[in-house]
Automatic annotation (TrEMBL):
GO biological process: 'de novo' pyrimidine nucleobase biosynthetic process; 'de novo' UMP biosynthetic process; glutamine metabolic process; L-arginine biosynthetic process
UniProt EC number: 6.3.5.5
Region (CPSase): 1-173
PANTHER family: CARBAMOYL-PHOSPHATE SYNTHASE SMALL CHAIN, MULTIFUNCTIONAL TRYPTOPHAN BIOSYNTHESIS PROTEIN-RELATED
Domain Carbamoyl-phosphate synthase small subunit N-terminal span(s) in chain numbering: 3-133
Name of the protein this chain belongs to: Carbamoyl phosphate synthase small chain
Upper taxonomic lineage: Bacteria, Bacillati, Bacillota, Clostridia, Eubacteriales
Organism: Papillibacter cinnamivorans DSM 12816
Main function: Small subunit of the glutamine-dependent carbamoyl phosphate synthetase (CPSase). CPSase catalyzes the formation of carbamoyl phosphate from the ammonia moiety of glutamine, carbonate, and phosphate donated by ATP, constituting the first step of 2 biosynthetic pathways, one leading to arginine and/or urea and the other to pyrimidine nucleotides. The small subunit (glutamine amidotransferase) binds and cleaves glutamine to supply the large subunit with the substrate ammonia.
Top EC class of this enzyme: ligase
Family under the similarity heading: Belongs to the CarA family.
């Protein structure tokens, strides 16, 4: 029996591969990530909602499935593509292999294709949609149909349904984490620093958030086109007037910029991986960062009370903003790392310092 399955790109390119994980037809936006490790964090990062993720590193899964490393309770990718998945993972923390995990989670996987060639196509053409199908007839139609796919209601689909509190041993700060699809490691980094973290759904209003009497507000990462979150953006405008310290990561960074009148744009193929260089503008120092985004804040559109604090050293796009009209700063990369380097975890200490100043 021929168990081949096909990946059909919106531009008509076809790759014939083999299935792993769950079986089924999927459409999604196809993106690549260059991280050599951190596949569990990638799979369970809610920011990948609606996307078919390609790992450029050729062998994935060799340390198995380790639930305590997850960034959320389950994988969110629409489908997962690797050159080769490891059938015999070896790690003392591993609880199983990738194939079984993806099957259990209902995530379609495809392996055995030239992921290097696929990545080159995405890099040249830019990000596009794709379909995975087992049906070899009608591949042209599959390509055509995938063109109209759009990721919709992304944040609403991944946010926590009800508030959730994580308490550290000793509470020094109370942080409201506005959950647009937050990675678990944001909470871990805050808890480590003595923060009680109250995670609230994306539909929360500024009034509800302020009624929790936060010492600081954390704007999380999350999926989709930032500009579509018009409700959150208008609530954010109000939060900005409260004087409570704000720290935004990735989608949170984009939403605060939008609330302050800046624009966002879609990048050609985004930044996804664990070795993206972010240059700190005041010092000129370059930090290696973990990233996963397809949109960016347009630097030229920032208001005069917003200072460009980081740029991507590869393409010069905006990677961070410090606001001078309020105690707020945001970054496009992931200081919480996971997977990736911890070079910029000092930004959480900076947030703590802002909260100290606010409390005093
Ligand atoms: N990781 C994120 O928060 C991603 C933000 C946004 N969805 C983007 O792709 O740019």
């Amino acid at each position: 029996m021929d168990d081949s399955i096909y990946l059909v790109l919106e531009n008509g390119a076809v790759f014939k591969g083999k299935p792993f994980g769950a079986r089924g037809e999927v459409i999604g936006e196809i993106v690549f990530t260059t991280g050599m490790t951190g596949y569990l964090e990638t799979l369970t990062d809610p920011s990948y909602y609606g996307q078919i993720v390609v790992q450029t590193f050729p062998l994935i899964g060799n340390y198995g499935v380790i639930p305590s490393d997850f960034e959320s309770a389950k994988p969110w990718v629409s489908a997962y593509i690797v050159r080769e998945w490891c059938q015999e993972p070896s790690n003392f923390r591993s609880e199983g292999d990738l194939d079984t995990f993806l099957k259990k989670s209902g995530i379609v996987g495809l392996y055995g294709i030239d992921t290097r060639e696929l990545t080159k196509i995405i890099r040249e053409h830019g990000v596009m949609n794709a379909r995975i199908t087992a049906d070899p007839s009608g591949l042209d139609k599959a390509a055509e149909e995938s063109g109209s796919y759009r990721i919709e209601d992304a944040v609403e689909s991944v946010t926590c349904p009800t508030p959730r509190i994580t308490e550290p041993g000793e509470e020094n700060y109370r942080v409201v984490l506005w959950d647009y699809g937050a990675k678990e490691n944001i909470t871990r980094e805050l808890s480590k620093r003595g923060c009680t973290v109250i995670c609230v759904p994306c539909s929360s209003t500024a009034e509800e958030i302020l009624s929790l009497r936060p010492d600081g507000i954390m704007l999380s990462n999350g999926p989709g086109d930032p500009a579509e979150n018009t409700g959150i953006i208008s609530e954010l405008k109000e939060l900005c007037r409260s004087g409570v310290p704000i720290f935004g990561i990735c989608l949170g960074h984009q939403l605060l910029a939008l609330a302050q009148g800046a624009r966002t744009e879609k990048l050609k193929y985004g930044h996804r991986g664990a070795n993206q260089p972010a240059k700190h503008m005041p010092s000129g120092r370059v930090y290696i960062t973990s990233q996963n985004h397809g949109y960016a804040v347009v630097s030229d559109s920032l208001p005069e009370w917003a200072e460009l604090s980081f740029i991507n050293a590869n393409d010069g796009t905006c990677e961070g903003v410090t606001y001078i009209n309020m105690p707020a700063f945001t970054v496009q990369f992931h200081p919480e790392a996971c997977g990736g380097p911890h070079d910029t975890s000092f930004l959480f200490d900076r947030f703590i310092a802002l909260m100290d100043a606010y409390k005093a």
